[in-house]
Amino acid sequence: MKTEPDETPLSGPTPTGGPDPRVTPLRRAPVQQRSAERLSRILDACADLLDEVGFDELSTRSVAQRAGVPIGSVYRFFDNKRAMAAALAERNLRHYAERVTLRTAAIPAGDWRGVVDAVLDEYLAMKRTVAGFALVDFGNQIPVGAPDAVPNTRVADRLAELLAGHLGRTPDPSLKLTFLVAVESADALVRLAFRMDPAGDERIIEETRALLRAYVARTLD
């Protein structure tokens, strides 16, 4: 198959240090800036359309039209709309990790309560403001990736790696388990909060915050 000059098949790590080919749904990873910008437009269009029409009515053709690219450009990157949703979930996780990192940089080392609040608050902020997030989040709402993919495990592991040093810990199995239970619990309760109120029921959110603090205290106090 002919390779576009600004794209590379996903047979190994990308020259730009892009998505891990073991988890990425991309058929080809962008190498040059123009290709990366095209991919970003496609994902932005996918996110907007998910909010407007939902996953069932989403189509690769409608995404191409919204992004202003030929449909062939969509198929260079993705096999189908589920692969687009998977890429959106991966991008969401990357952006979430970036937001948590920036937020926790201002929190004193060892202040695990501040870290717990940041982790929850940034998730809520994305749920309220990021296009397509309510349907895709990190891959839980619309199952994406391999059949045995467990999105919350990836989220918990990423958070443990990011925050262990700040908490004066190592990202060992015990810390990762603590984060996994916290992430799974928060995921279920935040869904409940948004079922009760489209903006997120503040009573349930505060109960979630209290539950997370009480649970994490067993490991970090």
Describe the protein in words.
The protein is mostly helical. 64% of the residues lie in helices and 3% in strands. The protein is built from nine helices and two strands; from the N terminus they run E-E-H-H-H-H-H-H-H-H-H. The protein has helices at 33-57, 60-67, 71-77, 81-104, 112-129, 133-136, 151-163, 173-196, 202-220; strands at 7-9, 28-30. A two-stranded antiparallel sheet has the order 1-2. Helix 2 (60-67) packs across helix 3, helix 4 (81-104) runs antiparallel to helix 5 (112-129) and helix 8 (173-196) packs antiparallel against helix 9 (202-220). The longest helix has 25 residues, at 33-57. The termini are far apart.
Portion in strands: under 5%
The biggest sheet amounts to: 2 strands, antiparallel
Report Rg: 19 Å
Global structural class: mainly alpha
Strand order of the largest sheet: 1-2
State the shape. globular
- Level of helix content? 55-70%
Compute the number of helices.
9
Order of helices and strands: EEHHHHHHHHH
Give a brief outline of the structure.
With 221 residues, the chain is mostly helical.
Map the helices and strands.
Blueprint: E1 7-9, E2 28-30, H1 33-57, H2 60-67, H3 71-77, H4 81-104, H5 112-129, H6 133-136, H7 151-163, H8 173-196, H9 202-220
Antiparallel strand pairs: 1-2
